[in-house]
Every structure is written in C-alpha cells, then in structure tokens.
Structure to design on (69 residues):
C-alpha cells in the first residue's frame, strides 16, 4: 500500500448547491466533480475562483502467482 497527500491549485468551473458539489479543472486540464461535505463552505465561492485543495491518494496492490496452465 502506498499513499500520500496532494495539494493542487484548481479553478472552479461549476457549483451545484442542490447536491452540493463543485466541479473544478486541475493543473493538468483534467476536470472533476466532488461532493461538498459542509454546504456552508460554498458561501463566498464563485465559478471562476481559484482555490487550493488538499486530498489523499492511496494505491493497494496484491501480487499472486499465476495459475499453472
């Protein structure tokens, strides 16, 4: 298992207060939509704003011997 914390500066491209969720474009041009746990955090945030976000990534791999043919 490997994991780490990533911090990136992203541009807000859409906000859906009903879900609530935010869509943003990352530094690599990739777009992602995430749910917002605390809707109060959306106050004062607008489409076009640049924000810094921090998230955790993890990868787990299991290696097994191949079955004999």
């Amino acid at each position: 298992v490997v994991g780490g914390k990533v911090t990136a500066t992203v541009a807000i491209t859409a906000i859906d207060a009903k879900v609530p969720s935010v869509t943003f474009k990352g530094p690599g041009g990739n777009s992602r939509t995430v749910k917002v746990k605390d809707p109060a955090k959306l106050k004062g945030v607008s489409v076009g704003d640049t924000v810094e976000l921090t998230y955790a990534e993890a990868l787990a791999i299991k290696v097994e011997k191949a079955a004999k043919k």
Notes: The mean pLDDT is 92. The chain has no helices and four strands. The first strand starts at residue 2 and ends at 16.
